[in-house]
Amino acid sequence: MTFELTLTGAQHELVRRAHTFAEDVIRPVSAKYDKLEECPWDIVDEAAGQGFYNALFYADLIADPTGLSLPLFLEEIFWGCAGIGLTIVLPALALSSLNQAGTPDQIAQWAPEMFGTPGDIKLAALAVSEPQGGSDVAHLQTRAVRDGDDWVLDGTKIWIGNGGIADVTIVNAVVDPDLGTKGQALFVVPKNTPGMTQVRKLTKLGHRASHTAELAFEGCRIPGENLLGGVDKLEHKLAKAREGGETRSGALGTFEQTRPMVAAMALGVARAAFEYACQYAAEREAFGGPIIDNQGVAFPLADIGADIDAARLLCWRASWMAASGVPFRMSEGSMSKLKASEVAVRATEQAVQVLGGWGYVDDHPVEKWYRDAKLYTIFEGTSEIQRMVIGRTLPGATAEGPLHHHLPGDHDGLSRRFGHGSLARARAGEVFLKMAEKAPGALLELGGRLASPGR
Ligand SMILES: Cc1cc2nc3c(=O)[nH]c(=O)nc-3n(C[C@H](O)[C@H](O)[C@H](O)COP(=O)(O)OP(=O)(O)OC[C@H]3O[C@@H](n4cnc5c(N)ncnc54)[C@H](O)[C@@H]3O)c2cc1C
Q1: Whose CA is nearest to atom 29 of ligand 1?
Q2: Which segments constitute the Acyl-CoA dehydrogenase/oxidase C-terminal domain (predicted)?
């Protein structure tokens, strides 16, 4: 599938439906849930009613060969409200781990339990981060120890979206501490499993409609079949890791796949703030005219507009690469998340600035967007970690040249031989220039026209 900026009919319709939902259903209650700091159950139920909250919907978006459907959807929903948006998509993040690490039977069993149905909404969580460190995933401490047919989990997880209220929690735990990320595995812990408790709900700067908690696992016993992928696969993976072979961590694989999704979320918030600030600046008058007539107001907004579009292109490129199986040579997924998250922070800060005092109070939504945006430079890998990941690829990737040098061409022999910039066209040009000295102008013009289309 080639990279295309032109949306399909289905994608246009998806954007329209998601935007209408964000504008009519999410935005009117966004400030309310931000203040209440409560899970927006009714909005999630409404999302389910509209088909935006079930495992097959996400499977369908992920299966889109262009890769664009999922970021398109996310940008619109997060344009509505980041906190409510996160509540709606958190099960999809957990589902992504389930899909990567689980067997077909496990996926069939647990995926429906992560979303429920309209009128019977369920939630899911992905629990990786721990109090002693979220970035350094090689040193996680939550242990999973085999006991007969069961596994027993002990440890603490923190900043877990839907933690403690999720029907299904996917927990990353260490099975062999000597192997770093290769010694980790994912486990399904259903709600109300004895030994899993919510220590506390966390009070946050932004994304306040999304429930975030600290979880404790104390002798938390789960059946053997809740190990994602099964014990044979785990033992094979551990044996390979002990021999020094290449293996994948389920949770880390998920991070790589989900980073462009986080970029799309950040873009939704950035765009909301940018649009609001531009409208405000066009209407607000000072010194006898709209404030946008001042370069001091218009230029930073122009920069933000360009940066949002650049970040969206990075996000779409990474999503297209993931869908097309193009290898991430320079961590293009991390690049998209890095750029989109940082532009979201700048866009929302600029929006507060453009609104002046009105930007600082909650009469307008920009102060909320400012608080919401900051999360994107922190979760799913901080900006520093994105730079670290990109930085590691630099010597190899830059030696090999940019990505487009490595993408396959369209194998169209005619285009290669006679398309724009081909040697044949260069030679033809030389001939025409020689003819120009002898032939009449009209004949030359006709020749030039005949030569020009060549697509
Ligand atoms: C609202 C919210 C929701 C979240 N949701 C989830 C969730 O659902 N599930 C989940 O598992 N986790 C979740 N997280 C956790 C999140 O992914 C972590 O907070 C994040 O990975 C950073 O980890 P940390 O907070 O421990 O920071 P640390 O790892 O302690 O880092 C602290 C600072 O040091 C910097 N740093 C660390 N190492 C390096 C280095 N080598 N070079 C340069 N700088 C470095 C970091 O960039 C950061 O600025 C959530 C976090 C928040 C705030």
Answers
A1: 135
A2: 251-393
- Are 366 and 355 in contact by the 8 Å Cβ rule? The answer is yes
Tell me which long-range contacts 286-293 makes (C-beta under 8 A, separation of at least 24): 291/354
- What burial class does residue 26 get, using C-beta atoms within 10 Å of its C-beta: 0-12 exposed, 13-18 middle, 19+ buried? buried
Please report the beta strands in 139-255, taking only residues with DSSP state E, as ranges in sequence order: 143-147, 150-161, 168-174, 184-190, 196-201, 212-223
Q: 360 CA distance to ligand 1 centroid (A)?
A: 27
- Does residue 127's CB lie within 6 angstroms of at least one atom of ligand 1? yes
Any idea of the CA torsion for 47, 53, 57, 59, to the nearest 10 degrees? 150
Q: Nearest CA to 175 among 193, 159, 155, 158?
A: 155
Amino acid (1-letter code) at residue 150:
D
Q: How does pLDDT run across 176-188, given as a tens digit for each residue?
A: 999 999 999 999 9
Q: How far is the CA of 131 from the centre of ligand 1 (A)?
A: 10
Dist. CA 421–CA 433, nearest whole Å:
16
Predicted TM-score (pTM) of this structure: 0.94
CA of 383, closest atom in ligand 1: 47
- Check: CB of residue 97 under 8 Å from CB of residue 106: no
Q: Is 380 a catalytic residue?
A: yes
134 lines ligand 1 (CB under 6 A): yes
Q: Which of 268, 246, 144 is nearest to 195 (CA)?
A: 144
Q: Catalytic residue among 130, 380, 384, 445, which?
A: 380
Per-residue model confidence as pLDDT tens digits over 57-113: 999 999 999 999 999 999 999 999 999 999 999 999 999 999 999 999 999 999 999
Find the 24 Cα to ligand 1 centroid distance in Å: 34
